[in-house]
């Protein structure tokens, strides 16, 4: 590994999306990330999507570039070894990411008796430590009720586990910030963050709490419209659906120009007595604008107007299914330097993303496959825990650890 | 500021969600974050939601705890001053976050002639540098086509700008990782990340690329079901809608137990010849499971079963609107240590979130209001650019800078 975090070692005890994503993000920047799991694999070891042979594409996706050790956590010796691996010496080690929340031997208080400068980042469900998942946090804070067609009473949950993805990246931030603090002060610490608090804070960050508390407005469903300015989906003559954005002045002017609707928009402005150069006015009068633009899209084909849109600085996109996006878009192929076709043992060869970062001083890490469960058990026991070969062999014999 | 990043100085040239969120995240961890804007404010200065007086709740939400300088970027002296502020000396300064992509005087090559160890993080639209926003990236990669009621042909866009929120947090990670590298090597660098690449990579991370490329499956809409295991929304006797999760063994057993559906589930298992203890089997047969559970929810009220669900370890949530969430949930009040009721000048007093992180060695920063545009112009010119009072006065007189 040659990445920007080369030399850093992070231990991960995790399952599901957020913390595995955090560890993977660090691994893809060059850190040595060790994920430990119980002998039969963690809760996400067989998580869907799976191949026809039952191999988890989810595990493969979220554990790329890590090392894996499989170990019996119910056995006292297993617990000792995990403690030793988490608290192994080295100025760039002693960094632990988890969402497992095991009290006693694996909490910050106990672990830091073994390494007082340990940095431990824990993702909680809610701030009380109760379980919460993306699928429950999202309805609790209100997004599904504001999602979907205008006027519908049915809530629509998001499909991207967005809170997990955000919280996972925040866990990386928390770890790097605490490690920076340790470098300056020598002091380790416990960093906690709750999935629900991440969502609650974002509601405030985006102005939604103010909208309720100050304006007394409970945002309704607005279909696929871009909130607060102009952006709308249209069906075209060829049956394609496109999303078209008129958020900035340039985008808006470009959209009016290419669709040749300047006269109709000017007439609407005169009728309303307002300038649609103001983004808030575009939002308030979006239905009228859409009524002007929709016939144009219904009469035109993407193949005909796409290039003109690009040229005029209109920001737009097709709606595509996942398969169509992969099939048509070179950004999902090795034409994009973040992607490479690699072989994932047990699954086969398919396009795999590395880190989306380009660090000019560190170069790009090519994507690495995910480990098989226990693939690095032996080398981790030797290199990190510092055990002699005979002892490692005994651990295998006694079934306290296993390999791939 | 007493936060974990105390002493760090970051300069931000930005608009909209991702980079303002990145700067705010750093400010809420104690960094001195200076946002510069043109004299009339950036593209997001009046972004909706706005108050009845036209004050932006969006600006207030995403710029909390920063300092603001308003400056004429078309004037050569304005450009010089911004360069001086970005490249000001100090081992913990020289950190620049941007999505403005100004070529020439504000690109990494030019700025680093003034401070060779500058760390500059740039968020692009796509990897070619073309504009892209959350609202176009999302349909391009496929999520709206997979969102919404089963069988519907209409795409549903998410309302949370999830890609912006993820990319903003990744920008923080990129900055901290590059600053760590600089501390060890003395070397600055340019860090680039594209919004669309963030989304494309996540499609791979979550196993969706593998699902298409290896399994040949283009995931259809699955309503509000939790993908890959069991989780479903139900309407209850009191008209409430709840999301109920049976992802882990414990959640699933708890759900069957409290709803007293053990016999019916066992009969279903016998009929299918499969164990629903397997999460993949629960996913495949989710419609049958839902048919067993739905009558129970339709006959019971949340007030009656909520406590039993909690006791049995079932993970569940109500669906609520934004306003109802704020009204009912103490997690949005100062009962939650991340929130405080604070006065935002020009807007008034309302509940505002600070950082969702709890750093044990640094304490919690109370949330701070967002600056007014240009509120810190004078002090930044004095403290950071090091200008004498007479020169600062001339800059105000000549209209090259302005205050709040």
TrEMBL record, chains A, B:
Q: Does the keyword Ubl conjugation apply?
A: no
Q: TM spans, by residue? A: none
Quote one Gene Ontology molecular function term.
Answer: isomerase activity
Matches recorded under InterPro entries: CoA-transferase_III (IPR050509), CoA-Trfase_fam_III (IPR003673), CoA-Trfase_III_dom3_sf (IPR044855), CoA-Trfase_III_dom_1_sf (IPR023606)
What Gene3D superfamilies does the entry give?
Crotonobetainyl-coa:carnitine coa-transferase, domain 1, formyl-coa transferase, domain 3
A Pfam family this chain is assigned to: CoA_transf_3
Name-wise, this protein is 2-methylfumaryl-CoA isomerase
PANTHER family on file = ALPHA-METHYLACYL-COA RACEMASE (PTHR48228:SF5), SUCCINYL-COA--D-CITRAMALATE COA-TRANSFERASE (PTHR48228)
Organism for this UniProt entry = Rhodovulum strictum
Show the SUPFAM superfamilies listed in the entry: CoA-transferase family III (CaiB/BaiF) (SSF89796)
Q: Which UniProt keywords apply?
A: Isomerase
